[in-house]
């Protein structure tokens, strides 16, 4: 019998790519999403890629009664991958209460139902933002977490603590927190990718929308950081590589291959690249010219961060594979597809 995986936020960017990978590995998938930052058309495109249409439920996990209705309807869930969350750093600074209510509340509702209905396994979508601006680079899983630079970052930190305490308290519960660095790119089919609602908050979709003429110009936030070219440095990981790590993590929990009931892994490439390096690489790979300007630093941003992926590579048997050039080409192919650009 197929193992059933509940994927919250499964029509979103990382969620949709993970659903495709789960289906390709023979899992039965139930998606739950409130469609606040995604579109129902993603389901059709998942089906085009995989040949399978996952079950879909539209509901809000920050509502306890709606969350419980999900567990009553699907009593055979083997594991949950929890993506559903608000994720814009800048917006979280402006709307902290909305971020705490949604991001923390939804996890608490899930864990409460997991405990009540004896669902053991949860993979949590965390973030390298929990490290803040680390004193030493690259960051390992044992790098101290620092005070968050934004409410968004703090919700990830708080949620990690809630998950850790829950698996410690409730018999049989196990959790893995995956700390993402910067997911970029799209599926090679160009049928799914990052499609933010409104103005993009992440670098690459803003680049692709600028190249497509949707945005007048790209704003590079800051050129006075203590980095080689003055722009901020991040670790950019291909979204399909990231998705595959979730399949490995789910397998690890279901098959009891975990070392402890709560584990943490960094998911990145191990290479730090600056914002301006990404801009230049995108232009070169895709043979396009970008209109961009340097503006002041953005509140909540950190200067530089990139991963030490040694532990994840060894323990999970997983490693980021896709080259940056291929990743940036896939992002542009996705943008061209949705905008009907030849």
Automatic annotation (TrEMBL):
Q: Does the keyword NAD apply?
A: yes
Recite the UniProt keywords alphabetically.
Carbohydrate metabolism, Isomerase, NAD
Q: Which GO terms describe its molecular function?
A: UDP-glucose 4-epimerase activity
Pathway participation? Carbohydrate metabolism; galactose metabolism
Record keyword Ubl conjugation present = no
Task: For this entry, list what GO says about its biological process.
Answer: galactose metabolic process
EC numbers listed for it are 5.1.3.2
CDD domains found in the cross-reference section? UDP_G4E_1_SDR_e
Q: Name one GO cellular component term.
A: cytosol
What is catalyzed by this enzyme? UDP-alpha-D-glucose = UDP-alpha-D-galactose
Q: Which residues form the NAD(P)-binding domain?
A: 6-329
As cofactor, the record names: NAD(+)
Where would one find the signal peptide in this protein? none
- Which top class of enzyme applies to this chain? isomerase
> Into which family does the record put it?
Belongs to the NAD(P)-dependent epimerase/dehydratase family.
User: What NCBIfam families does its record include?
Assistant: galE
The record's subunit annotation is:
Homodimer.
Q: What is this protein called?
A: UDP-glucose 4-epimerase
């Amino acid at each position: 019998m197929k193992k059933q995986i509940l994927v919250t936020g499964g029509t979103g960017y990382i969620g949709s790519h993970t659903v495709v990978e789960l289906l390709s590995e023979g899992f039965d998938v139930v998606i739950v999403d409130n469609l606040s930052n995604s579109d129902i058309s993603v389901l059709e495109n998942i089906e085009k890629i995989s040949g399978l249409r996952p079950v879909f439920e539209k509901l809000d996990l920050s509502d306890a009664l709606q969350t419980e209705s999900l567990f009553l309807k699907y009593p055979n869930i083997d594991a949950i991958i929890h993506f559903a969350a608000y994720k814009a750093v800048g917006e979280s600074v402006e709307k902290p209460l909305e971020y705490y209510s949604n991001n923390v509340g939804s996890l608490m509702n899930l864990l409460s139902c997991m405990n009540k209905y004896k669902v053991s396994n949860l993979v949590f979508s965390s973030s390298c933002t929990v490290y803040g601006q680390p004193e030493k680079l690259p960051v390992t899983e044992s790098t101290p977490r620092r005070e968050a630079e934004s409410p968004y970052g703090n919700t990830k930190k708080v949620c990690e603590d809630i998950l850790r305490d829950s698996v410690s308290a409730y018999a049989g519960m196990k959790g893995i927190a995956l700390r993402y660095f910067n997911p970029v790119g799209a599926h090679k089919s160009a049928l799914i990718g990052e499609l933010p609602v409104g103005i993009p908050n992440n670098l690459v979709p803003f680049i692709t929308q600028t190249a497509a003429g949707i945005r007048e110009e790209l704003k590079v936030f800051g050129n006075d950081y203590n980095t080689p070219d003055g722009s901020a440095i991040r670790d950019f990981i291909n979204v399909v590589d990231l998705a595959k790590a979730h399949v490995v993590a789910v397998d690890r929990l279901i098959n009891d291959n975990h070392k402890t009931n709560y584990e943490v892994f960094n998911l990145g490439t191990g290479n730090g690249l600056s914002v301006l390096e990404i801009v230049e690489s995108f232009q070169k790979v895709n043979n396009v010219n970008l209109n961009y300007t340097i503006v002041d630093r953005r509140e909540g941003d950190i200067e530089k961060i990139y991963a030490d992926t040694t532990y994840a590579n060894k323990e999970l048997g997983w490693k980021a594979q896709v080259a940056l050039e291929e990743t940036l080409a896939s992002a542009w192919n996705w943008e061209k597809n949705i905008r009907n650009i030849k």
